[in-house]
Design goal:
CATH topology of the largest domain in chain A: Immunoglobulin-like
Largest sheet of chain A: 5 strands, antiparallel
Structural class of chain A: alpha+beta
Helix content of chain B: over 70%
Shape of chain B: globular
Number of strands of chain B: 0
Number of strands of chain A: 10
Helix content of chain A: 25-40%
CATH architecture of the largest domain in chain A: Sandwich
CATH class of the largest domain in chain B: Mainly Alpha
Shape of chain A: rod-shaped
Structural class of chain B: mainly alpha
Oligomer: heterodimer
Strand content of chain B: under 5%
CATH topology of the largest domain in chain B: Rna Polymerase Sigma Factor, Chain: A
Number of domains of chain A: 2
Largest interface: A-B, 35 and 53 residues
CATH superfamily of the largest domain in chain A: Immunoglobulins
Number of helices of chain A: 4
Radius of gyration of chain B: 18 Å
């Protein structure tokens, strides 16, 4: 039963009583005792693990472990996506402020057939201008495609719906003068001495 | 039987294969019988103790946590069952194993060393007699330690006492055994 011989300790020494006890003849069970015990055990309900050990064992199974690893992974992805949206989310301004603060604003989100389309209102305050339009990467810098409309207070506005992405834009005033959005959150040099405003959706 | 093999069998028993318990009964019956027999000194009752030990072990197998050897766990149960049986019965050890009964058989065997055998037998009988006279708690400590080869820590675990208390019991048991062997006391030793 005990591999490597009997354990010794400081109590044993060379004590003759210990040696006598160790060498005391083993008493042998009557023949058939083990069989009789096995037969008796067969008549009682088989043992079961306690409920908490069964539950713990079930949680340790490889497929379950993978399931909750996946669940944790998905939850983490969700949290990261949420954090990303919070950090990178375009500002949502009340419509009433547009008249006084020129710039581009996301006013709401909606879903289009080709994915989520985001309505964006561009505003630019220029009371003396005769025409203003948005030229951008979303309209191939075409000055005809996105003209703005003048309000009574001299604020020019136009609303477009765009898919998610990154866009550069400028305001073209009176067809000749390019103006950078003074409220742009991000700018990028265009290589010709101007700064393009950058809009991320 | 290797402990890893034992643990494997136990797992399978708990996984719904009760037949896997049979090899364990087969493997440990002799050792437990030896322990019970020496604890109580009665072969019939020792068989009952072994049966009850396996019954309790089988019933409570789910509670065995595997932190100790299965064999030492069985020994602990066996000692407890023996305590219960010992309380029910206070018979003398020597009454069940008369010194002359075996001696006569040996003398009748025409052995060349019959006299030496007789002396050895008398010594063993005396040892058993002394073992039977010391208190059950001390007897259990001595038997687990020196007959079943459990470590002191395992003895402490199975008797549910501290290591120091276990050493004390072993030392006290050995002292009483020596006293009994030297004086050949008749009756109980305290």
């Amino acid at each position: 039963m005990n591999a490597g011989g009997p354990p010794r300790d400081d109590l044993d020494g060379l004590d003759p009583t210990v040696e006598a006890l160790r060498s005391l003849k083993k008493d042998v069970p009557p023949a058939g005792l083990a069989s009789a015990i096995t037969s008796r055990l067969a008549q009682i309900p088989p043992p079961r693990r306690p409920a908490w050990r069964r539950l713990w064992g079930a949680l340790q199974r490889p497929q379950v472990v993978w399931a909750y690893r996946m669940a944790i992974f998905i939850v983490l992805l969700g949290i990261m996506a949420g954090v990303w949206r919070l950090v990178d989310r375009p500002r949502v301004e009340p419509a009433g402020n547009d008249a006084f603060r020129p710039g581009s604003r996301v006013v709401s989100h909606s879903k289009g057939p080709a994915g989520p389309m985001i309505p964006v209102t561009f505003t630019f305050y220029s009371p003396k201008a005769h025409s203003v339009c948005v030229v951008s990467t979303f309209n191939d810098w075409d000055s005809q495609k996105t003209p703005m409309k003048r309000g009574k207070d001299g604020t020019w506005t136009v609303q477009v719906s765009l898919p998610q992405g990154r866009y550069e834009y400028m305001f073209l005033v009176d067809g000749t003068r390019y103006e950078t959005d003074p409220n742009a959150l991000e700018l990028r040099q265009d290589g010709m001495g101007n700064d393009n405003a950058v809009l991320r959706l | 039987m290797e402990e890893r093999e034992v643990q494997g069998l136990l797992e399978r028993v708990l996984d719904g294969e009760p037949d896997r318990f049979a090899p364990l009964v087969e493997a440990y019956t002799p050792a437990l019988y030896n322990l019970a027999h020496k604890m109580l000194g009665g072969s019939t009752e020792a068989s009952d103790v072994v049966q009850e030990t396996f019954f309790r072990a089988y019933r409570d197998l789910g509670r065995f946590d595997g932190r100790t050897r299965f064999y030492s766990w069985l020994c602990g149960i066996c000692v407890n069952v023996s305590y219960d049986a010992g309380k029910r019965r206070r018979r003398s050890w020597e009454r069940e194993e008369p010194m002359t009964e075996g001696a006569e058989e040996r003398l009748a065997g025409n052995s060349r060393n019959a006299e030496e055998e007789l002396i050895a037998f008398q010594e063993e009988t005396k040892l058993r007699g002394c073992l039977g006279r010391i208190p059950l708690t001390l007897r259990a400590a001595l038997l687990l330690r020196y007959q079943e080869d459990l470590s002191l820590q395992e003895v402490a675990d199975q008797l549910k006492i501290g290591l120091s208390a276990t050493k004390m019991r072993v030392q006290r048991g050995l002292a009483l055994m020596k006293e009994c062997m030297s004086r050949n006391l008749v009756g109980g030793v305290r």
